[in-house]
User: Fold these one by one.
Assistant:
Number 1:
Amino acid sequence: MDVFTGVGVALVTLLDADGQVDAPSTAALARDLVGRGMRAVLVCGTTGEAATLTDEERANLIRTVRAAVPSEVPVLAGTGARVTERAAELTAEAARAGADAILAWPPPECRDLAGYYAALAAAAGNLPVLAYHIPWVSAPGVPVEALPELPVAGLKDSSGDPDRLLAEVGGYPGATYVGSSALLALAGPLGATGAILAVANVEPDLCCAAFEGDARAQLKLADVHLATRKGGPAVLKQILAQQRGAIALSRPR
């Protein structure tokens, strides 16, 4: 069973004026985005600047967002880490906090992907685990040919590689979620399960339309996609400051 179908948001983590995590404002953003068509919410992912969060902040964000969005909308938690033991610990904590599914990139240069994801599956209990291919965070990432042997429900692929997307959708039986807002108008019509997108924080309607195959919507996303690709969550927070008065702060890594 797919974790969800359609477009989900890789949620930013909003801060208050003192640089502390503003969980209520982050949850309010998630609730508004669900009202605009988001079918899932990823908390504490790379867009959520998870590396800057304490374990307590992670758990509080998951609990607060889970309470804010309808029960039928899954809340995913990012738990990737550079060592298996840490990723398993984060996964168990996310499950206790109320996450509905897990998304995790593997340690860089991981030599035992199957063992890594088996450890996370054990820590997750009955929650589905998605692999995360994001090679600039965790090189070389998750090879397409390795996917069928991994104990995961599917993957998120943020590489932006259309050849890889073709291979995933055409040859991998698990769920494929595209993570690049440059490929939506290809991914949706091609048969991808869904998308998990940073840009959906600020352009949820265009993301949904593009995933449904609207080439004009895809083109309208170009500027914000490219800006986000270059500047990361800080760019999204600046746009949210203009859209809804959010505070455009990020913590130093």
Note: Residues 55-68 form the longest helix (14 residues).
Number 2:
Amino acid sequence: MLNEQPPDQKRRVHPLEREPAPPSQPGGESPRKQTTLHIPSVRPLVTYTMIGIMVAVFLLRATSPGTDEAILQWGANQRELVLVDGQIYRLLSSMYLHASVYSSRGTFALENSLHLFLNAYMIFVVGSSIERLFGHVRYALVYLLGGLAASVASIVLGSGGYSVGASGAVFAILGAQFVYLYQHRKLLGAAGRRQLMGLVQLVGINLIFGFLTNAAGASIRIDNWAHIGGAIGGLALSFAIAPLYIVRSHPTQPGHLMAEDINPLRPRLWTVSVYAVVLMLILIAARQFYIP
């Protein structure tokens, strides 16, 4: 049911819908003054923690080929091990593992660290900015639950091989960034719209590259289904729990503006529960219909 405005009342315009005031003409009113906008922000501690865990696991695996193989076999995501053997923990542990530190001959392969470097770089660049705006809890929920959605998509729709990496979580926070830019497109103006289009292009290029590596039958293939699952998970969760800022006058600093979040997390926690239940139902259905 929709709440309609009484006919004798004018609709209240949302702050983000207001058009900016035109610049003053020569000889007219005084030019607009620059003002300061205060936006709530936190240090990206969760981002640093996630990167730290991935690097620590990488260094532990580098101690010997046997340790490397044992950790990879223990934590990589794989369809039969999850659906048949019930090793659900692999959905999470695989997010902190990356390409093997050693080559197939057991020699150290430094170039394999590129997989870790690229994911860590994206998490640092995108995750830092998103966590500052979302806060620790909302960002952690998007990162972890979006990464789990990626792992679920990988085992349900993927090739069935071993899958590792944090790129599913990366796509989840890219989805969160898309939601933030889209919801605040009027406030951010042309710069925000350019960033939004650049983000869409970045995701599209990555998905096309992943498709090409699979079509060409490369020895190391990109798990596109994990990327798609992470992006969808991040989008869905962020549309529900992402902060939605409106601009108000600062209560204590005249001439300054402040961004107020009108979508607090606590009333939206039920959507997080629904999201988790949906993931569990997908896993249960996949296990019931899985044919080895």
Note: The first strand starts at residue 37 and ends at 38.
Number 3:
Amino acid sequence: MMNFDLKKTINNNPRLKKIIHRFIMNPVKTKPNWWILIFSFVYLKRGKGSVIYRSVRKDLPPFYNFSLGRYSVVESFSCLNNAVGDLLIGDYSRIGIGNTIIGPVTIGNHVNLAQNVVVSGLNHNFMDVKNNIDTQGVSTKHINIDDDVWIGANVVVLAGVTIGKHSIVGAGSVVTKDIPPYSICVGNPARIIKHYDFTLQKWVS
């Protein structure tokens, strides 16, 4: 991550910010230029035994933090993006085939995301109807996926959501609000259908 004072200086100078952004990011492809990715080993943190498959798109400029924990795996054809917020993945977690993860996102330990899951802490601004949406910038809200969560195929997790520990999100769900720990949720928008009752020591509806 860039030094805080340096980031502050750059952010307070629009012209300098534009020059540096253009040097780092390709304006058409909206991904880091190849000469930045050559040095990604310097600023991307990888834990012991972690794996990122070759086909993964790594939109990981040095604007924000990226870390992949010990023995965690990012499977083929996924996209990792920390251009607008930190992307932090814990230990023993698996990002499934064809996932898109856009920060700011924190994923805990022993988390499993199935195929074609979208987790995006980013939204495009649109309120000014006199200007094109793609000129209005973006807003972000942090997503937090706690330890020991299982997310099924084709799920969408929206910005600002927290999914609690040992929860399950059913395939095809759209998670629009927080899910408490030890819950099972399904649907669009996702609703809780079961939770674990520690008094009864069983899952209840």
Note: The helical segments are 4-11, 14-24, 34-37, 40-43.
